[in-house]
Design goal:
Layout lengths: L1 H26 L12 E6 L10 E6 L10 E3 L6 E4 L3 E5 L5 E4 L5 E2 L5 E3 L2 E2 L1 E2 L2 E2 L7 E4 L4 E5 L9 E5 L2 E2 L7 E2 L5 E2 L18 E4 L1 E3 L5 H39 L1
Antiparallel strand pairs: 1-2, 3-19, 4-18, 5-6, 5-15, 7-8, 8-9, 10-11, 12-13, 13-14, 16-17
Helix pairs in contact: 1-2
């Protein structure tokens, strides 16, 4: 009977964690450049004193992210950029390390720093800074050009270049802050990726989330029903154990 309890109990718990992943994806169905988290279930042996080979648990895991591109929508805003094809935009994370995102709705803060999601955008020489009140244009290769306030169009000057990277087959790992980083080396450190000239951007456009709301809703219903089934199995096992105890008491 305890085999059933082990399986149902661990399955119910991991279904709740799987539901959290599905809910997170659905909540970001309209987030610019969001990459859906993948989720999977797997059987794992029960560890600890007194373990038995017949007892197994279920573990939910997020083996990676879905890197398929999202739909590109034209906005006409000069500071909006969408990555064309594969590639990522480099930004500075809260700890000062280099991280990567595809969220391209850029802004200029009060100090003239080019920001994405409140994080400085990294260029060829570090965070990019542009003159305040300047009109900025972004080329297909990530080059920033601008005209200062009150200047004529002939004064168009280059102000920097976005660092665009292509992780290739090595891939990227999602961090707790929602940003992506290169896989760590043997020492556990993630080295910055080199800039790639092959990555291009579409100016005046944004890439949407690659989450399919319909599929996410179906997955949410499926996980909820699976959780209900597992809790019902726990109740059935409890009822069966009580009946067995009653029979033993009568025969005792």
């Amino acid at each position: 009977m305890d085999r059933l309890l082990y399986t149902a109990m661990s399955g119910a718990r991991q279904s709740m964690e799987q539901q959290a992943v599905v809910s997170h994806n659905l909540a970001n169905a309209s987030t610019t450049g969001f990459r859906a988290q993948l989720q999977a279930m797997r059987a794992v042996p029960v560890e600890g004193d007194g373990r038995l080979a017949t007892r197994v648990s279920v573990a939910a895991s997020t083996p990676g992210s879905d890197f398929s591109p999202g739909a590109i929508t034209r906005t006409g805003r000069t500071l909006d950029v969408a990555i064309d094809g594969s590639g990522f935009l480099a930004v500075q994370a809260a700890d000062g390390s280099e991280a990567y995102t595809r969220q391209g709705d850029l802004q200029v803060d009060g100090n003239g720093l080019l920001m994405s999601m409140g994080r400085p955008v990294i260029g060829e020489g570090g965070p990019i800074q542009v003159p305040l009140e300047a009109e900025v244009f972004i080329g297909a290769d990530g080059t920033l050009s601008g005209i200062g306030m009150g200047q004529d169009p002939d004064s168009l000057a280059e102000m920097g270049r976005l660092k665009l990277v292509d992780p290739g087959e090595a891939g990227l790992l999602r961090g707790a802050d929602g940003l992506f980083r290169a896989p760590p080396d043997a020492a556990g450190n993630s080295a910055p990726l080199p800039a790639s000239d092959a990555v291009t951007v579409v100016s005046g456009a944004l890439e949407g989330s690659n989450v399919n709301p319909v599929e996410s809703m179906v997955a949410m219903i499926d996980v909820a029903r699976r959780y209900e089934l597992q809790t019902k199995m726990i109740s059935t096992a409890d009822e069966s154990a009580q009946r067995a105890n009653s029979l033993l008491s009568l025969n005792g």
